[in-house]
Amino acid sequence: MRIWMANHYAVPPNLGGITRHYEMAREWTGKEGAEVTLWLSSFNHSRRRFIDKESKRELEEVPVPGFHLRWLWSFPHIRNDFRRVLNMVSFAVLFFCTGLFQARPDLIFASSPHLLTPFSGWLLSRFKRCSFVLEVRDLWPDTLIKMNGLQNPIVIKLLNWMESFLYRRADKIVVLTEYQRKFITAKGIDPRKISLIPNGIAVDSWKEEAPRVQEYRRRMGIAPDQFTALYAGAHGPANALEHVVRAGAYLPDGYALVLIGDGPEKERLKRIQEENGLDRVHLLDPVPKREIYHYIRAADCGIISLADNEIFRGARPNKLFDYMFMGRPIITTVDGEVREIVEENGVGVFSGAENPSGLAEAMMRLRHAPRDEKEAIAKNGLRYIERFGDRSKLAHHLYTELKVLVGFSVSRGIQSASREGKEW
Q: What pTM was computed for the model?
């Protein structure tokens, strides 16, 4: 089966960001025998710069038969202003225009968060006469309206139309959370065409050959005896990291907060840290995905933080799986689906939404938890990954569904062509 996967923000593991699609594509080519082309931007969204040739060359040194990367230019931007809109539009337009002149795939799999790339994917699927799968990572335009205060009625109407259009026209919809599935079903979409494929972990992607905990604690700038909570991920308005940084004011000696990543809020967070003298807070640059597990292993617990907003009640950030994979207790500031998973599976605590003092208290509570409780948390996390977060199993499950979809589409096309007296 020939598949096109398109995600504007997809990145390979040697860069920080969304590696879901790269890892899934490798699973499909390596284990399912598919031919997959991953369409991704050469402008790295989280780092706000173009990906250099050396980073691309690292990937080319280990070729995977049947797996192709198509780097598309997109307009550079630093802030969330009109340039970011141009960034989205340029990627979607180039995806459509370039795809027109490529050999026909059997299926086009296009992912949000923004809707322009999936819309281009749907248009291409009509020209190529193939199946179209919509992956919903964020619920646009609801997220924009509730987080960024999008108020332009014309833009809202256009995005609402595009959202409904894609839900109706997609042959299959893939969601990452149960909340998203219920949200889309409530719009009158047949639940039978919606598949829940959550984020997960490529369990064979990291193996610790020798203990390097102290080395990575030194890299984080923390002392061997400091109890350390780590946040690894995007630094944007949706992540509400100001409250994580301010938790440093409530921490006594012997504790540290480390935030790894980048985004539009990074400079403001640095100012908050400096102006308030929060020397127990360390803000580090992004690191490649293959290294982030070393940092998580070197920390004592992991933090999941999102804004206190209804739209995030159904979130399942990939950090949830990263921390469990490393056997680290989780402190979540996010109520809803994440909190339910954390508490029901015994892998951490809820510290309250946007609550700096609550976060500090949660760190102190975990530090003094009995050893057997910490050991149980580690085992519970690995058990959850085995059941629900193994990306290889998730990829196989989805690929099986896609094969059925493509088989159905082909047979439907043959029947239609036969009725019209044409050759397929």
A: 0.85
Give the span between the Cα atoms of 231 and 244, in whole angstroms.
Answer: 9
Q: Which helix (H) or strand (E) holds 4?
A: strand 2-6
Q: Answer for the pair 122, 96: CB distance below 8 angstroms, yes or no.
A: no
Task: Say if strands 227-232 and 194-196 run parallel, antiparallel, or are unpaired.
Answer: unpaired
Whether the upstream peptide bond of residue 224 has omega within 30° of 0, thus cis, is no
Sequence-ordered list of residues with C-beta below 8 angstroms from that of 379, at least 6 positions apart, any chain: 327
Q: What is the pLDDT of residues 373-406, one digit of tens each?
A: 999 999 999 999 999 999 999 999 999 999 999 9
Residue recorded with tokens 């025998």: 33
| Nearest to 67, CA basis, from 120, 137, 3, 7 | 3
Measured in degrees and rounded to the nearest 5, phi and psi for residue 413 equal: -65, -40
Per-state percent for the chain, helix, strand, coil, to nearest 5: 50, 15, 35
Please check whether the domain covering 213-388 is classified as CATH 3.40.50.880.
Answer: no
How many of the other CB atoms lie within 10 Å of CB of 222? 22
- Measured CA to CA, the distance from residue 242 to residue 337 in angstroms comes to 22
For domain 2-200+390-419, which architecture applies? 3-Layer(aba) Sandwich (3.40)
DSSP 205: S
In order of 114, 119, 167, 364, the CA distances from 190 in angstroms are: 22, 20, 10, 47
Length of the chain measured in residues? 424
